[in-house]
Amino acid sequence: MKPKGLFYTFGFLSAAVFSCAVLTVGMRPNTASAIEIPKEVTEEGKNVYKKYCAPCHGEEGGGDGPLSRSMLPKPRNFTLGAYKFRTTPSGSLPTDEDIYKTISYGVPNSTMIPWDILTEAQRASVVPVLKSFSEAFEYREPEPSVDVGLPLRPTERTILAGKKIYEEKLECWKCHGVEGRGDGPSASEQEDDFGFPIKPFDFTTGKFKGGNSPTDVYLRFTTGLNGTPMPSFAKELSDDERWYLTHYVMSLVQPEECGK
Amino acid sequence: MGYFNFPFFLSGEGTVFVRLQRIIKLFGKRWGRMKLTLSLCIFAWVFYCTHFCSEEMLAGEHYAVVEVQEGGCITGHVIRGGDAGMPSIDLYAGWELPKTSQVISEKLEVNKVNNGVKNAIISISNIERGKKGVVPPIHPIIDQQKGVFVPRVTAILAGTTVDLLNGDEEMHNIHTKSMRNQPFNLGMSYKQRISKKFDHPETVKLSCDIHQEYAWIVVFGHPYFDVTDRNGYFEICDIPEGAYVFRVWHEELGKREKEVMIRARKTESTEFVYE
């Protein structure tokens, strides 16, 4: 091989290695990995829980604090270990990062605010306290998070394909309604695992409870919402079909009604 | 030195070095035989783990597997007292209802001839030792037909895999509520088949939230249980001799308990009455 050719080959190889390195750094999932979440219940965690969480969620985590009576949806009852917003498969316990994320971002359309008034260490210290309320964490381990495929670009074609899944394949309209207003024929009878009435989500509000990014919407119907009638459709849909449905559901948002 | 009886090669006179030499010498002499013994031990351990450990785990925490040579049997009848035998009034007679509302629920099915209660579960609540439970190689099936779970009540041994099917040309979901077994909530399209294993003794409620229907899976740590047939009869066999508390459970009628003495090679007969 000529020296010039060798030089080019070497240059190409090094460029390839460099781009690979850049890609892997860029593709690292953007989670709360920087924060150390303690494994054991700490005194700080107990104090933070008692001061900020117990008024609604109750001293023993039963979701029966003094303020909970006037709330619907009710504050989470931690004793069953059923957490709505997870990255793990249906029925599994959440990872520590999932709980941390819900505390940090809050739940729109409910009385759970984003707890960014607390420091990161304070929020992280509450996580083991919440886990200590449920005996489910003694019996079972959280399963590994589900894989989120590479996102597709939303086009008219993907939205139409998503509409077909919404109306024919999964029959989402039975609870969420044809226009996505949460007024389907089965909507009025729904109950959660604790016996409280629960409303199917109204997509037109645009305030998705688990987060507004396409990945968040994708994860909600892939993993289901534990403790609620919302099932997981992990076995029903291929990866592309999940993105189609994500695009369709996000297209149901009515921007002019959002200000209400 | 009463409590510190060392093996013979460590006891006696000599420095640590001399003792070590003795050990090496001993192992050197018998290494050939020891290799065989060691490999046999490992083989036996692996065999034991694969064949016996799993069964002991299946059997639950307080249940020991023994061989039952001369077991006794119990047969019985679960009946509903009162006017249960009367034909019920059809509240919807003459109504024009949509098809989805005309679901016939079999929540409480009572035989009109002998007042036998279907789908009650009998089990021994205080058994500590007994026969080995066999996990069925063919999975029990729970189907959804016209929005109703068939069968409504299933009793299984811990470790059994249950196949859940959808026989309707529409979407269903299967939502379980349990603590020790992992709960799940999965969407089911037409002809979908989902296999789930139940490892821990527990009563699990299955429901379809779209059609507001439900079913029960009762998981036991021992093989002494039965579900009553449509005439209300049940039978449990191979019970070691002794007095046991028999428990009957029905989703609508609740629990009843009764102590029955089981004798070897005899068949006892009993009756549970819901007033």
Structure characterization notes:
The complex is a heterodimer of chains A (260) and B (275). Chain A is globular, with a radius of gyration of 22 Å. Chain A is mostly helical and 260 residues long. The model of chain A is unreliable at 22-32 (pLDDT under 50). Chain A contains ten helices and no strands. By secondary structure, chain B is of the alpha+beta class. Chain B has one helix and 18 strands. In chain B, a hairpin with a 2-residue loop joins strand 5 and strand 6 (148-150). The interface between A and B is medium-sized, with 30 and 24 residues.
Distance between the termini of chain A: 71 Å
Instruction: State the helicity of chain A in percent bands.
Output: 40-55%
User: In angstroms, what is the radius of gyration of chain A?
Assistant: 22 Å
Q: From the helix content, strand content and strand pairing of chain B, which structural class follows?
A: alpha+beta
Please indicate the percent range of residues of chain A in DSSP E strands (runs of 2 or more).
under 5%
Q: Regions of chain B with pLDDT < 50 over 5+ consecutive residues?
A: 1-11, 49-60, 100-104
Strand content of chain B: 35-45%
Largest sheet of chain B: 5 strands, mixed
Please describe the topology of this protein.
The complex is a heterodimer of chains A (260) and B (275).
Chain A: H1 3-26, H2 43-57, H3 96-105, H4 120-132, H5 136-139, H6 156-169, H7 173-176, H8 214-223, H9 239-251, H10 255-258
Chain B: H1 16-58, E1 64-65, E2 72-80, E3 121-124, E4 129-130, E5 141-145, E6 148-150, E7 153-157, E8 160-165, E9 172-177, E10 185-188, E11 193-198, E12 202-208, E13 213-220, E14 225-227, E15 233-239, E16 242-250, E17 254-262, E18 267-274
Parallel strand pairs in B: 1-4, 2-18, 5-8, 7-13
Antiparallel strand pairs in B: 2-15, 3-14, 3-16, 5-6, 8-11, 9-10, 9-12, 12-13, 16-17
